[in-house]
Each structure stands twice: as C-alpha cells, then as structure tokens.
Design a protein that fits this description.
mainly alpha, 4 helices, 75% helix
Length: 135
C-alpha cells in the first residue's frame, strides 16, 4: 500500500472511538436519558463514516469528518440542555475543541486526501512517478 502511516492509523483510531461511543450508548440506554444514548450512538455512526471516508478518500472523507464534528458539537449542546448549568463549561470547552479539531481535519482532508476538481494528479498520487526526471 502506498499510504503514509497516519492514513492507516487514523481510521483505526476512529473505529476505536466508534466502539467506545457505541458502548456508551448501549450502557446509557438503560441508565441515562434516552436522547443522550441516541447522541452517543450517532457519534459512533459518524465516527465509522469518518473512518471509512479517511480510508477510501475522496468526497466521503470531507463528509465524514464534517459529520463527526457536527454530531459531537450537537452532543455537547444536548448535554447542556438536559443537565443544565453544571455541564455548561465542559460543553463549551468540548465544542471549542471539536471546532478546532474538525477545522484541522478538514484542512488535512482538503490538502492531503481529496484532490480538487480539475487538478492534475500530484507526484504523491501516482505510484512510481517520484523518481522520474522527465515526462
């Protein structure tokens, strides 16, 4: 495979995050309010979508990363709505971290994974072209 190591490891880490959130949703189904369990399940689904997008590349990567950021921010807002004032500052810090992280990952996706329409393939995209000195 002609992929950098981070493009292999990051989807695996996202799948681990998805398993964690799916476990939280399963446990929360009986112990926590149902909307929180559903939000954890939505985070798990969005993390799987982001992992698939980062693995296969293209527009799916952009959609997956953006969906994960939106769902994680919505989960933080739902925490404040259901739990009230004690969850306000942790939710605000989580939303800020999600915004910064999602912005960074979208930048990485645009520059490294999803080529823009009309761009010629770069040297990284075509295997075996890195050592050629003439066309």
């Amino acid at each position: 495979m002609d992929r950098p190591l981070w493009r292999i490891v990051l989807p695996i880490l996202l799948l681990a995050f998805a398993a964690h959130r799916a476990g939280a949703a399963a446990i929360g189904w009986s112990a926590a309010p149902r909307p929180l369990a559903l939000a954890s399940g939505a985070e798990a689904a969005a993390a799987v979508l982001a992992a698939l997008g980062l693995f296969f590349g293209g527009r799916l990567a952009t959609v997956g990363v953006a969906a994960l950021g939106v769902v994680m921010a919505a989960h933080a807002i739902l925490l404040v709505w259901l739990l009230g004032a004690p969850a306000l500052f942790p939710a605000m810090s989580r939303i800020l971290a999600v915004a910064v992280g999602t912005g960074f990952f979208l930048w990485v996706v645009r520059t490294e994974i999803a080529p823009r329409r009309g761009d010629a393939p770069s040297v990284r995209d075509v295997p075996g072209r890195a050592n050629r000195t003439h066309p």
